[in-house]
């Protein structure tokens, strides 16, 4: 059998050279030209489809499987085109060795592709997926070795300009067997449709299911009827062309089996910011060199790590709610390593699946600079102690809090709050301007000041028109001095060496004047 197949090239070439059939008559123009339209034009269309899908993304499994299916369809048309110009004696061997093998390859590649598209490959054991899908190919080779009639009938006859197969039991068994695979295709795609999250995903599955149904209609219609030479042999193969046309429509309408756009690849690789494509479970699908450098600094392995695990809960809630992510400041932590980050994100559909595109910028140095600037704005550069600006800001906060709590001065919570503020202001005051260190002084120190009613009976000292400080020193203190307002002079004690000054907010307003 294989010896006869090896002789095919020589004898077939001689047959095509003078366009003769088995009777030795010259081939007519109709016999020579019609196959150009019935077979060669579909071949050219399939070549275009296969090339287009492959170059869209040659590294993706789905693209390769789709190209394999189209290549098998192309091979069937090519076999029929070549067989048409050869003597009918070569039809059985060509059909069994070439045509049938290509058809069986379509069933295995189709199962593999649809399982991949439906995302159900994880339900198969590793030793089964995807090897089980290609088991029929082994049967084809066994058929070639032992029995030509297992896959397709070996009888052929001439009718009109065509060489037609005999519609015997083997032929009908082969046709019905191919439709069993179509049932599996529909079931698998329906499973994928149930798991779809968006309307576009469901529409893509509907288009694929429609393509399978069209192919089954061609198998059960023209494929099962003997047209006695009115149509080319095996007319059901035109169902594969219809499937490719529907696939092309799906690709254009829903961006299915889309391109990896080379125009943006260089920008993606050269960007210093970390750019990554992450699925809705946090698995990193693609990452640019900037992202990989960031992962190396944080000790993250992008192939095995979940990106969501290093983010805080706030951004996770935004992602779960599909909220906008714009200039979101967060801290990325991994073990003992941390990084201040500014994140921008958007939701996209890639291969009919929802994904997130993240742009992550490292702002750790900027945040450190901001903290240094803030520290220098409120602290002395030499002593590193709080300055007057810091003091007045904290004091204003205390006065505002006192204004809010003015009606509850006698409550324990107010006293506790005032005590805490007193300690804060005491520490600041010792590093800013000299304040009075008077333990007790009469409210008469400021006869022109009308104190809040909540401060009645409180020992006060009025050291400056800008400050009102109630004394909360112990009763055992015997220190006494004159009020700055009264004496018009400042204490000679260096504030950096003097004892702490206990003070708390006592007025709902702050005077705008400074030291006199």
Tell me about this structure.
This protein has 516 residues and is α+β, with helices and mostly antiparallel strands. The chain has three domains: 2-254, Rhopdopsin 7-helix transmembrane proteins (Up-down Bundle); 262-367, PAS domain (Beta-Lactamase), CATH 3.30.450.20; 401-487, no CATH class. It contains 16 helices and nine strands. The strands form three sheets. A five-stranded antiparallel β-sheet has the order 4-3-7-6-5, with helices on both faces. A hairpin with a 2-residue loop joins β6 and β7 (353-362). α5 packs parallel to α7 and α7 (169-194) packs antiparallel against α8 (199-220).
The domain tally reads 3
Q: Work out the helix count.
A: 16
Give the class from helix and strand content and strand pairing: alpha+beta
Give me the side-by-side strand order of the main sheet.
Answer: 4-3-7-6-5
> Radius of gyration, rounded?
43 Å
Anisotropy-based shape: elongated
Task: Bin the strand percentage.
Answer: 5-15%
Number of strands: 9
Distance between the termini: 117 Å
The CATH class of the largest domain turns out to be Mainly Alpha
**Percent helix range:** 40-55%
CATH architect. name of the largest domain:
Up-down Bundle
Assembly state: single chain
Mean pLDDT: 75
CATH-defined fold name of the largest domain: Rhopdopsin 7-helix transmembrane proteins
What is the H/E order? HHHHHHEEHHHHEEHHEEEHHHEEH
Biggest sheet details: 5 strands, antiparallel
Low-confidence stretches: 1-25, 427-516
């Amino acid at each position: 059998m294989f010896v006869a197949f090896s002789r095919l090239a020589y004898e077939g070439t001689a047959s095509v050279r003078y366009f003769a059939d088995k009777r030795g008559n010259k081939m007519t123009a109709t016999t020579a030209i019609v196959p150009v339209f019935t077979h060669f034009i579909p071949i050219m269309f399939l070549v275009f489809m296969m090339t287009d899908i492959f170059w869209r993304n040659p590294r993706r499994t789905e693209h390769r499987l789709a190209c394999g299916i189209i290549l098998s369809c192309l091979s069937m048309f090519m076999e029929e085109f070549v067989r048409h110009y050869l003597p009918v004696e070569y039809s059985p061997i060509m059909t069994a060795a070439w045509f049938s093998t290509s058809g069986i390859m379509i069933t295995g590649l189709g199962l593999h592709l649809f399982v991949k598209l439906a995302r159900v490959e994880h339900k198969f054991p590793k030793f089964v997926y995807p090897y089980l899908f290609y088991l029929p190919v082994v049967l084809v080779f066994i058929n070639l070795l032992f029995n030509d009639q297992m896959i397709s009938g070996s009888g052929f006859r001439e009718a009109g300009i065509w060489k037609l197969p005999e519609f015997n039991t083997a032929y009908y068994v082969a046709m019905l067997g191919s439709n069993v695979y179509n049932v599996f295709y529909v079931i698998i795609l329906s499973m994928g449709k149930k798991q779809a999250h968006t309307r576009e995903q469901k529409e893509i599955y509907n288009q694929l299911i429609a393509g399978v149904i069209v192919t089954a209609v061609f198998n059960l219609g023209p494929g099962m009827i003997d047209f006695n030479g009115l149509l080319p042999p095996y007319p059901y193969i035109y169902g594969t062309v219809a499937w490719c046309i529907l696939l092309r429509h799906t690709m254009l309408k829903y961006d299915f089996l889309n391109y990896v756009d080379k125009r943006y690849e260089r920008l993606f690789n050269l960007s210093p910011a970390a750019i990554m494509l992450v699925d809705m479970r946090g698995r990193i699908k693609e990452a640019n060199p900037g992202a990989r450098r960031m992962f190396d600094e944080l000790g993250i392995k992008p192939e095995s790590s979940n990106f969501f695990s290093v983010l805080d809960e706030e951004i996770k809630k935004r992602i779960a709610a599909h909220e906008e992510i714009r200039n979101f400041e967060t801290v990325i932590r991994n073990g003992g390593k941390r990084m201040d980050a500014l994140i921008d994100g958007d939701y996209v559909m890639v291969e009919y699946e929802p994904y997130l595109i993240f742009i992550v910028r490292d702002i750790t140095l900027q945040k450190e600079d901001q903290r240094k600037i803030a520290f220098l704005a409120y602290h002395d550069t030499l002593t590193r102690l709080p300055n007057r600006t810091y003091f007045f800001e904290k004091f204003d906060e205390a006065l505002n809090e006192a204004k809010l709590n003015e009606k509850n001065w006698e409550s324990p919570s107010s006293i506790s709050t005032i005590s805490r503020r007193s300690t804060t202001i005491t520490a600041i005051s010792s590093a800013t301007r000299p304040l009075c260190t008077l333990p007790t002084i009469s409210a008469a120190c400021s006869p022109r000041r009308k104190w809040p009613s909540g401060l009645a009976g409180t020992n006060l000292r009025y050291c400056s028109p800008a400050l009102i400080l109630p004394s909360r020193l112990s009763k055992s203190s015997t220190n006494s001095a004159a009020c700055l307002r009264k004496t018009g002079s400042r204490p000679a004690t260096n504030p950096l060496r003097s004892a702490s000054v206990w003070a708390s907010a006592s007025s709902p307003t702050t005077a705008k004047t400074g030291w006199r």
